[in-house]
Design brief:
single chain; 10 helices; 2 domains
């Protein structure tokens, strides 16, 4: 590596981490001022606020906006180099534009590794503590909101339906359980209520009757109470979309398979989370190439024009990422392809800017 490589890497990483630290500090101040009343009203201790919430808030926030600040950092210090005619000196001394990109991509690789490690290993465990804190001190019991029209496949060939479910009471109403073998209905169980017994870890069915089918024969069993084991727990009804943010990669893969088995519509959101953990860090290379290609040329408008264009492109990229997820939610494309659509589109933009950059 040459001195110029070390110089650019130091500029890139120094600007990136300084900007990220600055915005995190500002965000913590605003967040604290907004939530201070909630912390006081719910008697949150200073230790819990610092170590359970804000210490785990930092990696989540850093990873969330890392792509944006990669873009801004590249444009900021590269525009400054261009205004100081440093690129003209480099190109005149025999450096090709491709060679100048080497330290940029080394820095991008470091940030990509940083973002990937945060998203797949650090943030899931940090989110568990952060979300538990929010549930206790900030959300005021939203986890007890009920569910209606619950349809699940709880094991191969076994399907359950609930007209409604109350999370605070761990009780389901108007339950139907169907068992199939070789696409033929073998039994059908009806119950007015199903109540979770936390001592035996079983469901108590009230006012039930069972229809069993054996060939052309049918038998009916009725009763007022039945203790039974069903491959379902209150925890399955309490899971929200945020729960996937607390899972590492292996846990997320297992959860997705479980969701597919149960036929829940939330499987798309889980798959989006899985593929975003790879696509988002990779976008660092694309945003770096766009940033360098935009700001390597000395402009009459100065650094402000480059930063303005950069911020516009970065926000359009983040907006398009959110929009592209709708393709998966609406079943237009698979979750994996939907996540990569912004990267593919902006990679083409990056290549176009690269070939038009000064050589």
């Amino acid at each position: 590596m040459k001195k110029i490589d070390i110089y650019i890497i130091r500029k890139f990483l120094g600007t990136f981490f300084f900007a990220l630290a600055l915005i995190i500090a500002i965000s913590i101040v605003f967040d604290l001022s907004e939530k201070m009343d909630d912390f006081i009203d719910r008697n949150a201790t200073l230790e819990a606020v610092i170590f359970d919430y804000y210490l785990n808030f930092i990696p989540y926030f850093a990873n969330l906006f890392s792509g944006l600040f990669v873009f801004i950092s590249v444009i900021f210090f590269t525009s400054k180099m261009a205004q100081n005619t440093e690129f003209i000196a480099l190109l005149s001394s025999g450096f090709s534009f491709r060679r100048i990109l080497l330290p940029y991509f080394i820095s991008a690789a470091i940030i990509t590794l940083f973002s990937f490690s945060l998203g797949n290993f650090v943030i899931p465990s940090a989110n568990k503590v952060r979300l538990e804190f929010q549930e206790m001190y900030l959300k005021g019991g939203n986890s007890n909101i009920g569910a209606i029209d619950v349809h699940r496949q709880i094991s191969p060939g076994v399907y359950i339906y609930l007209e409604s479910y109350n999370r605070s009471r761990s009780t389901g109403f108007r339950m139907t359980l169907e068992k199939f073998e070789n696409n033929r209905l073998k039994s059908k169980l009806f119950a007015d209520n199903m109540i979770w017994d936390s001592i035996t870890n079983k469901w108590i069915l009230q006012n039930y009757y069972i229809r069993n089918f054996e060939g052309d024969k049918e038998s009916i069993i009725e009763g007022h109470r039945l203790d039974t084991s069903i491959n379902l727990s209150p925890h399955d009804f309490s899971k929200k979309r945020e729960i996937v943010e607390t899972m590492n990669r292996q846990e997320l893969n297992e959860y997705i398979e479980h969701q597919k088995l149960m036929g829940t519509p939330e499987v798309v959101n889980s798959e989006l989370e899985k593929y975003n953990r790879i696509a988002t860090p990779f976008s660092t290379f694309i945003l770096t190439l766009i940033g360098v290609s935009l700001s390597a040329r000395k402009r009459k408008g100065g650094m402000g024009l480059n930063i303005g264009i950069g911020i516009l492109l970065s926000f359009s990229y983040v907006l398009f990422m959110r929009f592209a997820s709708m393709f998966a939610i609406n079943n237009t494309f698979s979750a994996s392809f939907s996540v990569w659509i912004p990267n593919i589109l902006y990679a083409l933009i990056a290549l176009g800017l690269y070939f038009s950059a000064p050589k």
